[in-house]
């Protein structure tokens, strides 16, 4: 059996601080800057937008780095002969995007290229509301009813929250790639159901989506129906006992 190979060492990416020269130019590195493009310059919050970074042919890049508002959001190892790199983002907020690449000078030194010219993405709206459905709109006390929450594809939801009459009754952590979530309700009384999801803006901030449209569940007491049935049966029996 061959010995296990140690994983390749990942380069440590360092986004350079822009230094403005006396002539008004920006000194970010030695190698020429790449070119950044967006699939759209405006989008709704929650939409998917592609960011592309194009390198000059025969550039000896080791890694390509995508940045938003001066912070690294993604890095990719460069491939020999490849000059176009893409990163897909699910839009959270407006921002300014740039990219650069890193190249190795020697075993111990990595340099940054110049940053690309910036491209601005304008985001509008809030995260869209999910869709709620109930397996039935009427039930009896003690019945089990399913509430289903449907998210848009590629949603950045971190948590799905079910509510009844404005109060949280259940929450579920989301699973990547899953857009349908279900909650079983043991019916106790009538109520209005809605749900929403939470998504992370950054490491320290979580926002709520808009609430789904409401669904009302009408509940009747099982004992009332049972009593009505008994009364109807008793009345029918008495009528049959009356002679002609």
UniProtKB/TrEMBL annotation:
Transmembrane segments: none annotated. Gene3D superfamilies: Immunoglobulins. This is Ig-like domain-containing protein. InterPro entries: Ig-like_dom_sf (IPR036179), Ig-like_fold (IPR013783). Residues 223-244 are annotated as: Disordered. SUPFAM superfamilies: Immunoglobulin.
């Amino acid at each position: 059996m061959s010995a296990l190979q140690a994983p390749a060492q990942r380069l440590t990416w360092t986004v350079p601080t822009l230094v403005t020269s006396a002539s008004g130019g920006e000194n970010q590195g030695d190698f020429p800057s790449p070119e950044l493009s967006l699939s759209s310059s405006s989008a709704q919050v929650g939409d998917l937008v592609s960011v592309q970074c194009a390198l000059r042919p025969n550039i000896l890049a080791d890694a390509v780095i995508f940045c938003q508002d001066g912070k690294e959001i993604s890095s990719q190892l460069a491939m020999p002969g490849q000059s176009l790199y893409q990163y897909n983002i699910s839009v959270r907020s407006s921002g300014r995007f740039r990219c650069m690449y890193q190249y190795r000078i020697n075993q111990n030194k990595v340099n940054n290229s110049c940053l690309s010219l910036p491209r601005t993405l304008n985001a509008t709206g809030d995260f869209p509301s999910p869709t709620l459905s109930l397996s039935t709109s009427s039930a009896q006390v003690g019945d089990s009813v399913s509430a289903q929450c449907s998210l848009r594809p590629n949603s950045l939801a971190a948590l799905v929250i079910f509510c009844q009459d404005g109060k949280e009754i259940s929450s579920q952590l989301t699973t990547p790639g899953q857009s349908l979530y279900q909650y079983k309700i043991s019916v106790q009384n009538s109520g209005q159901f809605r749900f929403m999801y939470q998504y992370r803006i950054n490491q320290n901030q979580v926002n709520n989506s808009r609430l789904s449209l409401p669904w009302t569940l009408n509940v009747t007491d099982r004992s009332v129906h049972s009593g009505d049935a008994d009364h109807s049966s008793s009345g029918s029996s008495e009528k049959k006992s009356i002679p002609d």
